[in-house]
Each structure stands twice: as structure tokens, then as C-alpha cells.
Amino acid sequence: MINRICIIGVGLMGGSFGLSVRRSRPDLIVTGVDSEDVLKKALERRAITAAAESLSDAVAEADLVMLCTPVMESIALMDEIGQSIQNETIVSDVCSVKSPLQTAAEISLGDGVIFIGGHPMTGSEKSGISHADEFLYENATYVLCPPTGVSDEYFSAQFGDFIDVIGSTGGRILLMEARKHDRIAAQISHLPQLVAIALVNSVGAKREIDPEILQLAAGGFRDMTRIASSTFDVWREIIQSNSTPIQEALKSLSDEIDDLRSLLASDDYQAIEERFQSAEDTQTAIRPRSKGFMQPLADIFVFVADKPGAIYDMAGRLTNEQINIKDIELLKIREGTGGTFRLGLETDAEADRAMIVMREGGYKVHRL
Questions:
Q1: I need a surface site. Which of 135, 325, 352, 368 has the fewest CB within 10 A?
Q2: What domains can you pick out in the chain, each with its CATH number?
Q3: pTM of the model
């Protein structure tokens, strides 16, 4: 049973974890490990119930230790806490790369300590305990990597209390082997970041020849390269710790680009058309509004009139039918007329029920 949690690093991720867990599980004792000023703020915000007097004492008393620090710092902490942590304690993390953490845990933690890698696929451009949000994890994919050799079925049966604690954050849990996680993350997260950097730099290098180039770089180019503004401080450790899968992803993309260049040189437009069709088929298979590695929510789109109480009425009708809105987004609005909301429901069946309720209430509603 998990009664005491130790959060090492009570910043944006650790503080948000503490806030969300304490909201759902007020019975838990949550101890924070960080600098004195951070812990003071965390106590004021009630992200933790106690400030640790020492790292060793905090982990020795914990049933669950959460490493909420950057990748390399979390790896270094394995050695530090390994001397104090008790057998049967669970250690988890929130890092975006999993295999290096799993390897470090196997080396540094005792045989009786259980390491379960975690990656909540959420975040913010802001950092620190001041920006912690109790709803940061809500509806985000939360990848958990069971210990090596442990089946998903055994994991779910034996670690129910841990899964309940993680689930209390509002995250949508997905079990995945660590190396598979890192391989997929390299393809769909780390590779796009580097491609955006390369594309922007490639265009930027042409500014002396074509000074108008950035004036025309809007629309699709802007959408494709939005993430190029990310700072290297955020990405340094991710790239360093997942270097091999990222290199493999870059090689695969490079081969695809070389192939396209060869097809252009040989005027093989039939083959290029086939590539377009293949890309369209793959893109279509990516269901809209999906989040991270998870299957997406079931979306409905509701037009709501621009008048007082309209949103309250819409939500109230669904609440009265015990239909839970998992996600909501205002897509567009025209002042004096109204706006279209995207409502994310848990299942297709819930979405179908919500459609009926909304239409009975006189709302214009549709699904894609």
C-alpha cells in the first residue's frame, strides 16, 4: 500500500504531481525534497504536506519516490538514494526518456527496490513551483514502463495501488516497454524537433540571396516549424540520453529524402504520386485530436449561442445524464453569434449519447 510519497524536485512537474494527487488522495502524506525557498512555496500551495529535513530520511520513509528532475540529475540521484531506500519501495520518474533511467535503477538501487519508469506527456513553457497546476496531468498520456521481465497483466494485478496513485493525477495510463517508448519517442517527438530546426536553418541560410523569403514563410511552413523556437536547454539532455534511437530515426528520414531526390532526378512522377498517396493513407490513420501515444478521446462539436449561461446550460445537460466531459476546447467564435466547442468524451458510445442529449436541447452538433 502506498501511504507516503516523496517527491524529489518540486517544480512544475513535481509540484503539479503533488497538487493533483493531493486533490484526489488527501489521505496521502507527500514529502518534498528541494531547496528551502521552493519547499516553502510548495507548502503554501499545498503541493506537499511536509518539507524533508534530509534526502535520506525522506526516501527511507517513503512507499513511493518520485524523481521529478531532469534526466541526468535523476540518473545521478539513483546512486544517492540507493543507500537509504527501503526494500519494496517503488521509485518512479517523469523523464521523457526511459531506458537510461531503467538501466541506472538496475545498477544503483537494491534488488528489493522496484523501479517503474514513467513519462507523463504534458508540460508547459513555464517552469517552477509557481506555475505548477493541479490539472497539468489531466487527460495527458501517462506512459508507465513495468520492470524488465514483468508482463502487463502481472504488473496490473500486483501494482494496483501504484497505478491508482498515478491515475489519480487524471493521466491516461499506457503500459509500454522502455526501449519501445524511446524508439517511438525518437520518431514522433525528437525527430520532428530536429527536422524543424534543420528546415528553419536551411531557409534562414537563403536570406542573403532572397531577403523576402521569411515574408513568404507563412501557412504550412510556419505550422511545420513552430516547435523550432524551443530552447536547447530543454532538449540537451533528451537528445543526449536518447542519441541512438534519434540517429536511427534521422537515418530513416535521410533515406526517404534521398529516395525522393532520386525520383525527381529521374522524372518518376508516378512513384512520387505513390509516396503522396502513402503519406495520405498514413496521415488519415492518425485519428484527429489524439494525445501522445494514446487512442484519442471521442470528439463532438457543439455550436453554442453567444448569450449568458449558454456554456453552463450545455455542460449541465451532459452532467444531468452522467456524461463526463474529459476535454473541452473553443475552436472559433463570432461575437454576437456564438462559437463552436470541441468536447472530448471517453468513448464513442459516450459521444453518441452526448449527441442525442445536445440535439434534444436544441443544439447544433456533429462528429467528424
A1: 368
A2: 4-176 (3.40.50.720), 190-285 (1.10.3660.10), 298-366 (3.30.2130.10)
A3: 0.74
Place of cell 487512442: 295
Q: What is the 3-state secondary structure (H, E, C) of 57-89?
A: HHHHCCCEEEECCCHHHHHHHHHHHHCCCCCCC
Edge-to-edge strand ranges of the sheet holding 327-334:
327-334, 338-345, 298-305, 364-366
Q: Where are the alpha helices (DSSP H) in the chain?
A: 12-24, 36-45, 55-60, 71-82, 99-108, 152-158, 160-167, 178-185, 191-204, 220-225, 232-241, 243-265, 269-285, 310-320, 348-360
Q: Which are the contacts of 96, defined by CB distance < 8 A and separation ≥ 6? A: 71, 119, 121, 185, 189, 238
Please classify residue 345 by burial: count the beta carbons closer than 10 Å to its beta carbon, then call 0-12 exposed, 13-18 middle and 19+ buried. buried
**pLDDT confidence tier of residue 351, bands split at 50, 70 and 90:** very high
